[in-house]
Structures are given as C-alpha cells and as structure tokens.
C-alpha cells in the first residue's frame, strides 16, 4: 500500500490517493470523519480551526460501503479557500487583480520551510513554499490513517495515540493496562492526556506561552496492540518495520525525534534492565516479562504492544517576533504574524496515530497477502496459530 497527498493550505482542497488497499474492507465516510474531527481539537489551536469543519468526500475505490481494491481518492475541502480565491487562484492574474494581490511573501519565518524551499525551487514569493509545507496537509494523512485503522480493526489490532508531555509538564508513566480505558480517558481530555492531574498544568503552560507571544512543544505516544510476532524483517535495512515507523513519525511537521519503549533512557540503563525476558504459557504462547523495547526486536514485531514516542518542537510562528532577513531588500526585520497555533501537540498525537497505523497496515498487507480482506484475515490468523504452537 502507498499513498500520495496533494493540495495547498489555502487552496480549494486536500486530496489523497490510496493505492493497494485490499478489496472487501467495510468503509464509510463516518469512519474517516471521526478521526478528522479528533485532529481539529486540542487546547492551543489557532483561529483557522474555527473556520474549518473537516469532513471527507470518498471519490473513488469504494462501492456500497466496501473497498474495491482500486485506488481510493479522499478529498477534504478547505472552507478558508473562499477568502483566498485571488491569492491562491489557478488562472494567471488579470491586470486589475495583480494590483490587489501583488504582496509577495519575502520575509522567511525561522523554523519553517520558507527560506530553504525558496532557495531550492527558486521562488521569490515564499507563499509558493509555505502553502504546501503547512501542516494543513496532515488532514488527509489522517484520512489515509483512518482507512488503515479500519483495516487493522478488522484484524483485532488497536491503535491509540496520546500526549505525555507539553512544555515540560510530564504525565505520570501510564499504568492503565487496557487500551480501551486509556483511549476513553484521552479522548475526554482537552490536551489528549490520560493523566488528569497534569491536564490543567498543560493547559496553563500553553496559555502562558501564548500570553508571552511564544509557543511550546511536547511528546506524543502511540500504542499498537494485537500485531502478531514477526511482522517486518531483519534481512534488509529497508524492510525493518521499526525504521519505517520511526520515519513516519519524523515525517510529521515539527517532529524532531523518535524513541521506542524505554528509548533514550537505554543509554544509561544496564542490559539487564532493558532486554525483555522471554516466557511461555499454554494460553499465551511466547510472551515477554517486560516491554522495554517497545514491541520490536531485529526490525520485527515481538507480539508485545508497539510503544513509540515522538517529540514535537515548539510551533515556529511566534507572536513574539524572531529576527530574519527580507530576501528582496536583504534588510533584517522582526516578523509579526496574524494567526497561528500556539501548541498543536494534541492534534499531532492524532496525526501520529494515523501515520503509525498506515505503516503497520502496509507491513501486514505486504506480508500476509495483497488483494483480499478475507485472505489476509485467514493468513494473519494462521500466523497467530503458528506462533502459539511454535
Ligand atoms: C497539527 C500541526 C499544526 C501545526 N500548526 C502550526 C501553526 O499554526 N503555525 C506554525 O508556525 N507551525 C505549525 N505547525 C508546524 C509547522 O508546520 C512546521 O514546523 C513547519 O512546516 C516546518 O517543518 P519542520 O518543523 O518539520 O522542519 C504545525 C504542525 C502540526 C503537526
Ligand atoms: C490548517 C491547519 O493548520 C495550520 C498549520 C500551519 C502550519 O504552518 O503548519 C499554520 C496554520 O495555518 P493558517 O496560517 O492558515 O492559520 C495552521 O492553522 C490544520 O491543521 O488543519
């Protein structure tokens, strides 16, 4: 399975084409809209989220509520487009419109793709860069992820994402063993954090940053339960599933690092506190006495929950201006801005769920059969039985 996305932040719509989703997967717009709505929430979002009410149109690849095996086209309309039809118009500008729309973006914002993208593509108007580098694109990645999540649910695999840290305020390591309970707590939280004790502190940290014209980042965690052991491979660098999952997290705008299980703490722990000892029982087959490695050994799943975290840097557009240089005049200036999120870590936890769900679903389709939901289900079940008896 693979997908491409297209669309500018203030253009008419975002689109994705999903290739290789097996035939026979039940799929409705509601399955996708639910995740789109979850991505729009979260304390710290800016005014744009009041304009947009993201919903999907399924334009191909689904008939009577079932996938066909043909490419699936998903589109989300930008409600803000109506305010940008001239600035973002597709046709060449008339003389009269040129006067009205002539203001180019020549002042690159530190932390954004603006300057590097302009140098790379030769754009003297950096709107040509920022429109596509914007995280608005994550809308359709969440739509693609919702399809992957539906696929995984058919195989009894659950995916949950949440926030574990915002602006230095940390949640207690979670002790909830049931993923459904964890999800219920997270969904009810304005910062998508299961730890009620720190929720208010997280919101206060966001509000303080905003009052100071600043922004903050944080850490999100995604847990995937129910993936059989042996998905991925150790035989080649580009078949290692942990590497693909890490790349998917790093592909989210503003993400700067990834860890699995105990992650970076492994640098200071002895091996006896890191490696997950192996046990066997009649009911469970092989299992681990701990899950410090976050569900991966040798680029393959261990059968334990996958636990992956990503760190998001603070939002780069600040109300407190940072210094930059105008690319036309070469004069220094201090950027001031009109609107931005001050913290998007809760929203990013939904994006992280989506990209991880896609990678796991893709690995399963590749390993257990490409075309038909019923055959994939049988093959996954066979693999589970094989592992239990092994
Ligand atoms: C859900 C989400 C919302 C974001 N909202 C904003 C925003 O409102 N303002 C902003 O400056 N950056 C925002 N970002 C981050 C930028 O898109 C990102 O930092 C920028 O494109 C540069 O990419 P890089 O940080 O990956 O290098 C957001 C990121 C995500 C994931
Ligand atoms: C539109 C979304 O996020 C946007 C991501 C973003 C950026 O620079 O990444 C900048 C802001 O866009 P605007 O300048 O239009 O307010 C955010 O609102 C979204 O998440 O749907």
From TrEMBL:
Q: What does this protein do?
A: This reaction introduces a second double bond into the aromatic ring system.
Signal peptide per UniProt:
none
- Cofactor(s) the protein needs: FMNH2
Its quaternary structure?
Homotetramer.
- Belongs to which family? Belongs to the chorismate synthase family.
Q: Quote the protein name from its UniProt record.
A: Chorismate synthase
Gene source species: Sutcliffiella horikoshii
Q: What is its EC number?
A: 4.2.3.5
In its keyword annotation, does this UniProt entry include Membrane? no
| Pathway info | Metabolic intermediate biosynthesis; chorismate biosynthesis; chorismate from D-erythrose 4-phosphate and phosphoenolpyruvate: step 7/7
Q: Which reaction is recorded as catalysed by this protein?
A: 5-O-(1-carboxyvinyl)-3-phosphoshikimate = chorismate + phosphate
Instruction: Name the Gene3D superfamilies on file.
Output: Chorismate synthase AroC
Instruction: Give the UniProt keywords, A-Z.
Output: Amino-acid biosynthesis, Aromatic amino acid biosynthesis, FAD, Flavoprotein, FMN, Lyase, NADP
Give the binding site residues for NADP(+). Answer: 39, 45
Which InterPro entries does the UniProt record give?
Answer: Chorismate_synth, Chorismate_synth_AroC_sf, Chorismate_synthase_CS
List residues binding FMN.
132-134, 253-254, 298, 313-317, 339
**Annotated region described as Disordered, given as residue ranges:** 96-116
NCBIfam families in the cross-refs: aroC, PRK05382.1
How is the co-factor bound, per the entry? Reduced FMN (FMNH(2)).
């Amino acid at each position: 399975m693979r997908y491409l996305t297209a669309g500018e932040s203030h253009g008419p719509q975002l689109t994705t084409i999903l290739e290789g989703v097996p035939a026979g997967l039940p799929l409705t717009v509601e399955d996708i809209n639910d995740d789109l709505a979850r991505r729009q929430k979260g304390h710290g979002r800016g005014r744009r989220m009041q304009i947009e009410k993201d919903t999907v149109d399924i334009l191909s690849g689904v008939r009577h509520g079932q996938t066909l095996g043909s490419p699936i086209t998903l589109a989300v309309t930008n409600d803000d487009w109506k305010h940008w039809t001239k600035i973002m118009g597709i046709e060449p500008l008339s003389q009269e419109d040129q006067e009205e729309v002539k203001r180019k973006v020549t002042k690159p914002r530190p932390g954004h793709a603006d300057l590097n993208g302009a140098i790379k593509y030769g754009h003297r108007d950096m709107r040509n860069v920022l429109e596509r580098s914007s995280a608005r694109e994550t809308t359709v990645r969440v739509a693609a992820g919702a399809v992957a999540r539906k696929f995984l649910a058919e195989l009894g695999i659950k995916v949950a994402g949440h926030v574990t840290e915002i602006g230095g305020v940390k949640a207690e390591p979670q002790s909830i063993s049931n993923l459904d309970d964890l999800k219920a707590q997270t969904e009810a939280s304005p910062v998508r954090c299961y730890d009620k004790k720190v929720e208010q502190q997280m919101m206060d940290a966001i509000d303080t940053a905003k009052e100071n014209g600043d922004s903050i980042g944080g850490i999100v965690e995604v847990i995937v339960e129910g993936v059989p052991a042996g998905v991925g491979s150790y035989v080649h660098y580009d078949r290692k599933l942990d590497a693909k999952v890490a790349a998917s997290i790093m592909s989210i705008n503003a993400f700067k690092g990834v860890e699995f299980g105990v992650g970076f703490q492994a640098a200071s722990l002895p091996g006896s506190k890191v490696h997950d000892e192996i046990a066997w029982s009649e009911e469970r087959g092989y299992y681990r006495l701990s899950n410090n490695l976050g569900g991966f050994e040798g680029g393959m799943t261990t059968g334990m929950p996958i636990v992956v975290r990503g760190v998001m840097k603070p939002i780069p557009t600040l109300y407190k201006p940072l210094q930059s240089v105008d690319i036309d005049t070469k004069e220094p200036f201090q950027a001031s801005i009109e609107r931005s999120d001050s913290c998007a870590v809760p929203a990013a936890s939904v994006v992280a769920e989506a990209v991880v769900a896609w990678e796991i679903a893709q690995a399963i389709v590749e390993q257990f059969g490409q075309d038909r939901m019923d055959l994939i289900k049988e093959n996954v079940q066979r693999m589970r039985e094989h592992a239990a008896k092994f």
